Every structure is written in C-alpha cells, then in structure tokens.
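Regression test case RT-17, inverse folding.

Input:
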C-alpha cells in the first residue's frame, strides 16, 4: 500500500503566492511588481504585510504619483535615464475596455492614473483574498 502522504506535495505560502500571481487574472499586477523587485521573497513580504496597492509600493520603496492622463506613445519616447522613465507598462483590461497604464520612474516613483491605481488596488485585494492573508 502506497502512503498517500508521501506523494503529497506541500506548497509553502510563498510558492502559493508565486503560483497565483503568475495566473492570467493577475498578469498586470505581476508585470508591475516584477518591474519593482526581482526578489519573490521581497514581493511576498510586501503583499503579506500591507493592505493596499499604495502601501505595497511604499514598502517596496516607491511612491505613487497620480496623474489625470498618461499618453503611452509619448512615454516610450521618454524611456531611459534622460527621460526619467524606467518602464512603461501598458495594461488593457478587456472586460471593462479600460486602458490602465503604469510608469515606473528612475526617481523611485510609480505614475498611474486614479483609475489604474484603483484597478490594481482591487486586483491586489483579490490576490490577498485568494491567498487568505
């Protein structure tokens, strides 16, 4: 008789976090977080220890700057140290037909529209709900 417990793979909370974050519904949030830190443990600690998108970004060392509108094409031309933009992260949410861009800047700020910040705050809340944190 085979011991079924020996065949059970135990998933740590961090592994569960990485698996869930890699799923399609969280693709946009993952792109942003990957642009802010390449260390999964740092991201897990941030998500686990905060209650909002803005708190998470602050914990990762970034400040959120809200702007009324972001012109993606213009932002690509300002990518690089001279233009101040480290990463342009366009995100289009198909169900809501919404463009939700985010910019990661060299001055440790993340620029977003109020709509995109609210959207990713909701996405983070859903991730935390699925994680049970």
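Golden output:
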């Amino acid at each position: 008789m085979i011991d079924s417990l020996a065949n059970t793979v135990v998933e740590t909370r961090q592994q569960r976090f990485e698996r869930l974050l890699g799923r399609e519904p969280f693709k946009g949030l993952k792109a942003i977080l990957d642009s802010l830190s390449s260390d999964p443990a740092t991201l897990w600690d941030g998500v686990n220890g905060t209650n909002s998108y803005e708190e998470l970004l602050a914990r990762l060392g970034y400040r959120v700057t809200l702007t009324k509108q972001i012109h993606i094409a213009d932002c690509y031309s300002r990518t690089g140290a001279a233009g101040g933009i480290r990463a342009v992260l366009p995100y289009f949410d198909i169900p809501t037909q919404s463009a939700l861009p985010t910019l990661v800047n060299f001055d440790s700020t993340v620029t977003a529209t109020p709509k995109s910040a609210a959207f990713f705050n909701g996405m983070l809340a859903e991730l935390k709900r699925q994680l049970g944190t």
